[in-house]
Design brief:
By secondary structure, the chain is mainly α. The chain is built from 27 helices and two strands. The relative contact order is 0.06.
């Protein structure tokens, strides 16, 4: 197809013709060729420019290729089924590369947004859930790969402000929204599609068990855990890239409003009146590093809003969730454990610190943003002994960027507040726990005295 000696223009004309061929095998081979040449800079430019973008548009159209509509009957479908399933997978795979690497990546993103690509991707990722749940058929495996690449492409497109706004501003047709919810979400029209994606993202039925390093015959993964780069193109978790979509969209005000709006549920075991943001926080403990990285970045973006800092620290109690991935196997003495949430030290030598460097950076940046949000936030973080976890994390941190960010947090936490006496920040913590100990000693005689009083200007809800 791409033999030497042919005129270059003629070769691209042939490729364009093969991409729209009625023969499934020809179209499949053409889609595979696009994936291969997408890795080379000179071809990436030609794909975009050839025929005023006609070749590029052919790749886009193949993302929605439906073999059922082209099959002539049961016999024909049986012979073309496997090849036809890979045409949209290959096309999406190629577009992910084209929008990810090289000097033309941003140009491809702009073009894809101009071609209204996000609605096309939403149609792909929100369809055929029953087939997706069946993990044994070839159609199911192909669908998982198609959704995975579609979500990855969606993550690339939402890196830009226009893409993020297009994403959170999308909704289903008016007739699909009840009259009651239509009024409630008149200003924030993101509920339907974003909530549907969030439900898919949180549904464990769509996630297969990841292969370990030993199962793959490769010991380079370390601790039998696949890295972000290794998982990126694998379809064990087809909705994994929604974590990156959330991180990108929460850089906009509308995206943050979507996560912070209250979510009411009838699901047993789930607290009524929580918000979508609280529902994704457990992903910080996911086995999938792509989910952890995106969730950490989302938390960082939510922390940008200074007005939310009190709610984050006192209602959501976000500090223990942020600190958990940063905590390690180090043995803490009694004084260091005082005030720390038990989850941060109970695992002892079995506790493993987050291995993904960008995830650690996002988490430390979240703490830094909370520190910078005001004095009350810093006092709360001091009472929760944030410094203890950061101190041990910094001792083993290999990234200079993360270490510098930790040092900035330490400067906030260890310094005395303006207008206070020297050593007042340490005294605040010491006096708080001294009063708790005294109250505990009196609990046997007068239960009422053991309870925090209004005069104590300290939030004891976080103290165990």
């Amino acid at each position: 197809m791409m033999e030497a000696g042919h005129d270059e223009t003629h070769l691209y004309e042939e490729l364009k013709a093969f991409l729209i061929s009625d023969r499934v095998d020809v179209r499949k081979k053409a889609s595979e060729a696009v994936v291969q040449i997408a890795h080379e800079e000179e071809h990436r430019q030609k794909i975009l420019e050839h025929g005023d973008g006609v070749l590029f548009q052919s790749v886009i159209r193949n993302c929605s290729y439906d073999h059922d509509s082209t099959a002539g009957g049961d016999a024909a479908e049986a012979t073309v089924d496997e090849g036809a399933l890979m045409i949209p997978v290959n096309s999406l795979h190629a577009l992910v590369y084209l929008s990810s690497i090289g000097t033309t990546a941003n140009l491809y993103i702009d073009k894809l947004l101009d071609f209204n690509m996000i609605p096309r991707l939403l149609e792909i990722v929100l369809s055929n859930s029953k087939t997706l749940s069946s993990s044994e058929s070839k159609s199911s495996e192909a669908l998982r790969s198609k959704i995975n690449f579609a979500m990855a492409l969606m993550a690339n497109l939402t890196r830009t402000e226009q893409g993020a706004v297009d994403m959170v501003g999308r909704t289903l047709p008016e007739e699909a929204v009840s009259s009651n919810s239509a009024k409630a979400h008149e200003k924030l029209r993101v509920k339907v599609t974003m909530d549907l994606l969030l439900d898919r993202y949180r549904n464990p039925a769509f996630v297969q068990q990841f292969p370990s390093a030993s199962e793959e015959g490769d010991t380079s993964f370390g601790d039998n855990a696949l890295t972000v780069e290794q998982l990126d193109s694998l379809a064990f978790d087809p909705y994994q890239h929604f974590a990156a979509v959330l991180m990108n969209t929460t850089q906009t005000e509308q995206g943050r409003k979507f996560l912070l709006q209250l979510h009411y549920t009838t699901t047993k075991g789930e607290e009524d009146g929580t918000c979508n943001f609280q529902r994704i926080i457990p992903q910080l403990k996911s086995a999938n590093p792509i989910r952890r990285r995106g969730t950490a970045g989302t938390i960082r973006n939510i922390c940008l809003d200074k007005d939310s800092s009190w709610w984050l620290l006192n209602v959501v109690k976000i500090s223990k969730d942020i600190l958990y991935p940063l905590a390690g196997p180090e043995e803490l003495d009694v004084s260091e454990k005082q005030g720390l949430h038990p989850d941060l030290w109970l695992e002892g030598p079995d506790k493993k610190r987050e291995t993904d460097q960008p995830t650690r950076r996002y988490l430390v940046e979240s703490i830094l943003l909370l520190c910078a949000s005001g004095r009350r936030s810093r006092e709360q973080l001091r009472l929760e002994r944030t410094y203890v976890i950061l101190k041990w994390a910094d001792m083993v941190e290999e990234s200079e960027e993360v270490s510098d960010c930790i040092n900035e947090c330490v400067q906030y936490l260890r310094r005395d507040e303006e207008g206070t006496e020297e050593g007042s920040s340490d005294a605040l913590v010491a006096n708080a726990y001294k009063r708790i100990v005294e109250s505990s000693n009196l609990s046997g005689t007068t239960k009422k005295q053991a309870e925090p009083t209004e005069e104590m200007d300290v939030n004891y809800d976080v103290v165990d």
